[in-house]
Amino acid sequence: MSMEGAALPEPDEDAPLVRDIDPEDEAEWRTLWDGYCRFYGVSVPEHVTDALWRRLFDPETSIYGIVVEDDEGEVQGFAHYVLHPYSWGTEQLCYLEDLYVVPEARGQGLGRAMIAFLRDRAREQGWARLYWMTRADNSARRLYDSFVPADDHVRYLLRMAGIAPPKNEG
User: Fold this and answer.
1) DSSP secondary-structure letter at 102?
2) Residue 57 contacts residue 48 (beta carbons within 8 Å)
3) Is the CA virtual torsion 74, 25, 112, 48 positive or negative?
4) What is the pLDDT of residues 20-45, one digit of tens each?
5) Domain annotation covers residue 78
6) Prediction pTM value
7) Residue 40 lies in a domain
8) Pairing of strands 63-69, 75-84
9) Is 50 inside any structural domain?
10) 58 class by beta-carbon count within 10 Å (0-12 exposed, 13-18 middle, 19+ buried)
11) In Å, what is the CA distance from 74 to each residue of 36, 69, 89, 100, 105?
12) 107: CATH
């Protein structure tokens, strides 16, 4: 999905607040992370969750986090994204790895706001592409399809011996 030459939209004062995750968000993030893992039917060991939290603030890693707040300033969702180089260009690519909004806040534009935030950041930072994957039966595909239609790529997943996949990993 090319973003070349696209104008940035004017800020919308009514749009949900999306911002970079902050160390003070830890308690809320952990609650959301637990909900996200339950949604996907996975059990992530506590030491892995701890490591992820640390990496979100480690300048030596390439994984980042954003959160979205509701009208009352409560964090209602998060997204994790990874920046990486690619072989067909010199710009960075952005892989949206995780996106979650609490069930009671869905349908209020919070997920859309986080994707739009990353799209706009991609334009500002000169990233070549923002991309993500989801399960074929994910109800959020309506949201995703409103940004761009799914392409024809197929994912292959080769698991390494001795490393157990999370339960229900597709």
Assistant:
1) -
2) no
3) negative
4) 999 999 999 999 999 999 988 999 99
5) yes
6) 0.85
7) yes
8) antiparallel
9) yes
10) exposed
11) 17, 5, 39, 14, 11
12) 3.40.630.30
